[in-house]
Amino acid sequence: MSKSSLFKELFVNIKTTGAVTFSSKSLVNKMLSFAEFKGAKVIVELGGGDGSITKGIIERMDKDATLYVFEISEHFCENLKKEFASDNVVIICDSAENMDKHLKGEPVDLILSSLPFSLIAKESRTAIYEKSSLMLKPSGYFIQICYSYLLRFQFASHFSTIKTAFTLKNFPPAFIMVCNS
């Protein structure tokens, strides 16, 4: 799928992509700098999109780790499956609120998310928060890119520790929430 097709998908489905452009390399690098990849065996990405975060995760994860990428756009899923065809990268074309069904209770080391929680229905986003919190190992982290600091208060109901970072090196500038139980 060409970059122009990916951009078209971004704008056609802005309610589910929640972005006006893809995450900058600087934002991806900053987000991933908060994750401990060494020793992480089960990694989940919520909202694979164009694959910019997926690529960064794959470059950093251990060879024996498995990455599960959740994406609801069929166009993005097709592109992700082509670009990241590998036995240890599983592209799942389904809502993140169904992650427990796909992982079958397997504990997760890292959850990296760029989901547009501000645009997701309350019931669905609450399910995603709850399942993310329950599925994470006690030493695991949920790391979220977001454009509103107010989301921190939603995360606080599900995670005991939340650290926040900010970067101007993205359009629009973004927050990174680093959460654990």
Detailed description of the structure:
This protein is an alpha/beta fold. It has one domain (3-13, 23-180): Vaccinia Virus protein VP39 (Rossmann fold, 3-Layer(aba) Sandwich). 36% of the residues lie in helices and 25% in strands. It is built from eight helices and seven strands; from the N terminus they run αααβαβαβαβαβαββ. A seven-stranded mixed β-sheet has the order 3-2-1-4-5-7-6. Helix 4 links the parallel strand 1 and strand 2 (66-70). The radius of gyration is 15 Å and the shape is globular. The N and C termini lie far apart (38 Å).
Q: Would you tell me which CATH topology applies? A: Rossmann fold
Q: Which overall shape is indicated by the principal axes computed on the Cα atoms?
A: globular
Straight-line N-to-C gap: 38 Å
- Note the total helix count: 8
List the domain count as a whole number: 1
SSE diagram, text form:
Blueprint: H1 3-12, H2 14-17, H3 25-33, E1 42-46, H4 52-60, E2 66-70, H5 74-83, E3 89-92, H6 99-103, E4 108-113, H7 122-135, E5 136-146, H8 151-155, E6 161-167, E7 174-180
Parallel strand pairs: 1-2, 1-4, 2-3, 4-5
Antiparallel strand pairs: 5-7, 6-7
Helix pairs in contact: 3-4
Q: Tags for this entry?
A:
7 strands; alpha/beta; 181 residues; 7-stranded mixed β-sheet
Quick recap:
With 181 residues, the protein is of the alpha/beta class.
